[in-house]
Amino acid sequence: MRIVLVGPPGAGKGTQAAFLAKNLSIPHISTGDLFRANISQQTELGKLAKSFMDKGELVPDEVTIAMAKDRMEQPDAENGFLLDGFPRNVSQAEALDEMLKVESMKLDAVLDLEVPEDEVVKRIAGRRICRNDSAHVFHVAYKQPKREGVCDVCGGELYQRDDDSEETVRKRLEVYHTQTEPIIDYYKAQGLVVTISALGQVSEVTGRAMEALSRDA
């Protein structure tokens, strides 16, 4: 299957993408991973992307598209892939359509993870990260540490990242509504959108997604 995963920040896209890709035996292609890999390997695309990022500028669509194209042409993506973070806007969606058309391929589904805006704010603004190890993540409502402000794993101080503040989260949501949400209508016109609720336990959401994709297949 060839799937695009969309949803607002805090919808759990990264978590669901990993589970779905494993269940469907297809690679999870994340924009963040693509950028990190290209930059660390110092590819031409990575150097180009870094030159924009170092200036605090957005990486142009054509660079992101080229990275995605290169990754989708790898042997492990021959029988399908799950795209997470790409396409991010309608221009990228149109470019993806053209890429697939050249290869006589098409998308099977666009999975839209739906979550209320207030829940997004609650999920992200409630996160607390360990200063010693960013992999140790807690939450003021969903995963409270045994001692307030102290990491259960290593005893490090827990803090809220600047980009997890409510004000920043709402700004990120505005960007999502303006730039990314229009691709849902773009794909709805092609009859590809499958919308599911992203509320509940991770396994429940994965189950919903797998059921919806199997119905749509």
From TrEMBL:
Known EC number: 2.7.4.3
Residues that coordinate or bind AMP: 31, 36, 57-59, 85-88, 92, 161, 172
Catalysis performed (reactions): AMP + ATP = 2 ADP
Positions that bind ATP: 10-15, 127, 137-138, 200
Region annotated NMP, chain positions: 30-59
Ranges where the Adenylate kinase active site lid domain occurs: 127-163
Family: Belongs to the adenylate kinase family.
Function: Catalyzes the reversible transfer of the terminal phosphate group between ATP and AMP. Plays an important role in cellular energy homeostasis and in adenine nucleotide metabolism.
Protein name: Adenylate kinase
Organism: Streptomyces dengpaensis
Lineage: Bacteria, Bacillati, Actinomycetota, Actinomycetes, Kitasatosporales
